[in-house]
Design goal:
This protein is α/β, with parallel strands linked by helices. It has 17 helices and 16 strands. The relative contact order is 0.12.
Length: about 500
């Protein structure tokens, strides 16, 4: 008779494999800390907006926007575009505050486009939601993951041609929630874009700021309860330590969100007009000068080579064909590969994917996997065998105190659209083994009949749900794939043997 320990370990191992195969568990103590910090900051935010409510007008997005951008998951991103230029070389992405895209942001986009002679595009990062109710706005800000915003902004950049035209200069400007998203986008993905943070959450990690190859402008009020003077001092000193040119100013007598609308600039209100002039002077200087720091010219030049970008990531790994521990450096290099690497176009389509798919692929980087296995006191490795007929067999080799052996699944793979693939598993089985060189059962038919076999098959079928089946592909070439698990905003990289 099967023991309860065996059943428990079996269920755990199925969970582990699904997490491994589907990139389905994103654990991060930093994320937990970030949520606590965000909630603390939000208390101050609520008080600020109750004391000084914004003159906000909520307008349906289909009436407010004039641009549709193909999104990373097949859903269009709505945006408002203002333009007043001839060559289209200078572009601003303007990110709204936590109320969502609204007429105030549209008016600011028009003003910046007119005064700077550039294109300004303001995307909806909440994907269809706007509000004037502060608690709902805070909820939207807390539940909109940076990774999803980054993916949407990557789509905006592709739409603007920023990835293919080296002469284009891009600045990312954000207000409040949008300011925090702006500097995280430029530090995590778009290192050569200038950043302007209007009273948004700053980044103070020097290692993250060192990725930037363009200047940063910060605009804050000294009565803003969200950001202490020590935090803002730390922000500026961290930028200096990272070698990033910056212009950080704190204006007296005002609190959070002190530039509420364009009419303040038209009347010459202070310090709003001074803050606006700081912003536009910074942008004019950036658009008319080099985007690179002098000491980073060589680094940036090498990063523009897609081959170098890929080799830098692969060279950072300890094990070229096995799962590696996560690190900030490796995650940054993986993001560089996605942003600047030479990926096959339309990687989710069968026409693009099938010529390179057949063969054995091994997971080489997925930080949440190594974190989870470490918490369980063990480790596992994952491989995928993809076949010409569209079938897939995957094996996870598990080495845990309570279970050693293999957990396997099989099914089929195909295309959802040009950017998204899907995998449908329909069988699951295990093989316990203490032998280092043992091999898994190759298929369900080779597994001896038993109660355990039946149980595993039933548990597997119950676990194969729709959210675990769909995977947008961020990067693909003949030997490397990076795909997303959108349910939890995670990524996984695999390499072909």
């Amino acid at each position: 008779m099967m023991s309860s320990a065996c059943i428990a370990s079996t269920i755990f191992c199925i969970t582990c494999l699904l997490c491994a195969l589907n990139s389905s568990l994103a654990f991060s103590s930093r994320a937990s800390s970030s949520i606590i910090t965000s909630w603390s900051s939000s208390v101050a935010h609520v008080i600020e907006h109750i004391v000084s409510p914004p003159p906000l007008q909520v307008t349906p997005l289909n009436e407010l926007t004039n641009t549709r951008i193909p999104g990373p998951d097949g859903v269009d991103i709505l945006a408002y575009t203002a333009t007043n230029n001839d060559d289209g070389k200078n572009t601003i992405i303007l990110l709204h505050e936590f109320f969502g895209l609204n007429p105030s942001i549209v008016e600011k986009a028009e003003l910046l486009a007119k005064d700077l002679g550039c294109t300004v595009i303001a995307p909806d990062t909440f994907r269809g939601t706007v509000t004037d109710f502060v608690p709902k706005a805070i909820w939207l800000a807390l539940t909109t993951p940076q990774e999803r915003v980054n993916d949407d902004l990557d789509a905006v950049c592709r739409f603007l041609g920023c990835n293919t035209d080296s002469a284009k200069k891009l600045a990312v400007v954000g207000f409040c929630y949008g300011g925090g998203k702006a500097i995280r986008y430029t530090t995590q993905r778009k290192h050569d874009a200038a950043t302007i943070v209007f009273y948004g959450s700053p980044v103070t990690d020097v290692n993250e700021l060192q990725r930037l190859n363009a200047p940063v402008c910060g605009i804050f009020g000294n009565q803003d309860a969200q950001f202490s003077s020590s935090l803002l001092d730390n922000f500026q000193s961290s930028l200096n330590d990272a070698g990033v040119d910056n212009d950080i100013r704190v204006y007296s007598g005002v609190g959070h969100a002190f530039w509420k609308d364009v009419s303040q600039i038209e009347r010459g209100d202070q310090p709003q007009t001074d803050a606006y002039n700081q912003c536009t002077t910074f942008l004019r200087e950036f658009f008319s000068s080099s985007t690179m720091r002098v000491d980073d010219t060589i680094k940036e030049a090498s990063a523009t080579s897609s081959t170098t970008v890929k080799s830098r990531f692969l060279d950072s790994l300890d094990r070229p064909y096995d799962l590696n521990q996560g690190s900030k450096e490796r995650t940054g290099l993986l993001n560089d590969l996605i942003q600047n690497g030479d990926s096959i176009q339309q990687p989710g389509s069968l026409e693009s994917f099938m010529p390179v798919a057949p063969g054995r692929w091994r997971v080489i980087y997925a930080p949440h996997m190594t974190t989870m296995s470490g918490l369980a006191g063990g480790e596992f490795s994952v491989q995928y065998d993809l076949n010409d007929d569209g079938t897939i067999v995957s094996h996870a080799k598990c080495n845990f105190p309570f279970y050693k052996g293999f957990l396997s699944v099989s099914g089929s793979f195909g295309s959802v659209n040009n950017e998204v693939c899907r995998v449908d598993f329909d069988e699951a089985w295990i093989k316990a083994s203490n032998h280092e060189n043992d091999e898994p059962y190759p298929n369900i038919q080779s597994v001896p009949d038993s109660i355990l076999k039946s149980l595993i098959r039933k548990l597997g079928k119950a676990a194969f749900i729709e959210p675990f089946a769909v995977f947008p592909i961020s990067f693909l070439d003949s030997e490397t794939i990076v795909f997303d698990f959108e349910l939890l905003g995670t990524r996984i990289c695999a390499r072909k043997e």
